[in-house]
Amino acid sequence: MSQQRPYVVGNWKMHGTRAMLAEARAIDRAGQRHPKVEVAIAPPFTLIHAARKEAEQIGIGAQDCHPVDGGAHTGDISAAMLADAGASFVIVGHSERRSNHGESNELVRAKAESARKAGLGVILCVGESEAERDAGRAEEVVCGQLEASAPQGAGMVEKLSVAYEPVWAIGTGRVPSNADIEAMHRAIRARLQAIYGAEGDDIRILYGGSVKAENAADILGVPEVGGALVGGASLTAESFYGIIRAASGENVD
Ligand code: PGA
Fold it and tell me: Is 185 tagged catalytic?
């Protein structure tokens, strides 16, 4: 097992105006109190630059990027632009992008590769639907997504994390059993080793989907879980702090 710090990342999705910068500051203070945890947030594009200026220590990232550096792509944002705005990482392949925007594995892979070329860390999301799990196809689906969307080429593994997010657990309050999380994370690890060789040993595999202060310690204690990607519970410093504390090994009352 790797000795890396747990990585706890808040995905703010399409939430947040400048009023939420106060939460970013408070999350930053929480991160400073828990140096054993690597804390980050991915606010909407519009807040990245301001959040970077407000926060001293936590990582600030984006929720998506376009696969090319620039050009006639109205409304899109490139990885180079994100780096320029102060982002240090980007989430790619989130299931809401795969479903709302029809993103294919090939597109997700191109986004991941352009982000790495721009020097950004990448959190590559994979996860099965409920129907796929019920059909006994969860591992096959997740490993297939991974195989087809993992970035390829020199320098891609460094700063790459994978987030396993079962689609049916996102925003629903439902979470897989610890045994199911462990089995999937082990399958992802094996696939990462097949893709990247020994370098695949150190890629952090985050769990995402209804992580809360109440279940975080339990989930983060599962073998091969290297952190959490948190949606709803990252929107206030108060709720996110409970997860940061759990990741640092403190009891949450
Ligand atoms: P949730 O979202 O924590 O609100 O379930 C997780 C995610 O979509 O990254």
Answer: no
